Amino acid sequence: MAELVVAFDVPSGREALALAKRLPGLRWAKLGPGLHVREGPALAREFLARGLRVFLDLKWHDIPSTVAGAVAAARELGVAMASVHCLGGAHMLAAAAQAAGEVALVGVTVLTSHDGAGLGQVLGRGVPDVSCEAERLARLAVRAGLRGVVASGAELALLRNALGPAPWIVVPGIRSAADPADDQARTIAPQDAVRGGATHLVVGRPITRAADPGGVYQRLVECL
Ligand code: C5P
Q: Which of 59, 75, 195, 205 is catalytic?
């Protein structure tokens, strides 16, 4: 069964904890750079103390020893999942995987904000098909020992087919038919993400901006 991960993209730790209280049955909380820089590891500790699993989504991309150090710190903190950029390369991914221990490390393949032209500019060559790049990077991540990857719904089927059944595929950009897409270019309905082989569905604004976040959370859980 897939897991529902709530992206706590709210302005303060106080608001994050207040929101968590309104989500009965909450299991996973994703903390991103904004809240982490503002609140530090204390907020992750608050979530952990409430028995939640924390996904520290800081998308590290640096030299291997630096990233391994960050992963080791995440492990000491006690988070359940953390993210790195696959573009950091095989050595960085392997060093990160070695430091991860029980932390499930997932690799971001191609940022959903990149199109073929943008990625081509970064790589210095033409990129006719962004999905091929995502598949290539996903294979690199799994070979290096990562637990899985982060992917958009657009690449989900391709990656599940390429990686086989075991690796985690964490999918953001989840939107039901009635939800606004916001700034997500490639969205997928929760039922389709589950059918396509996602292991974790990441949902932010459809929950954080809802008048009744607990009700939306509950309806999403029923899709899993
Ligand atoms: O509000 P929304 O449901 O669009 O939030 C999606 C979350 O997933 C955000 O926290 C965003 O940072 C994260 N994410 C994403 N696309 C990626 C990786 C992470 O939207 N490729």
A: 59
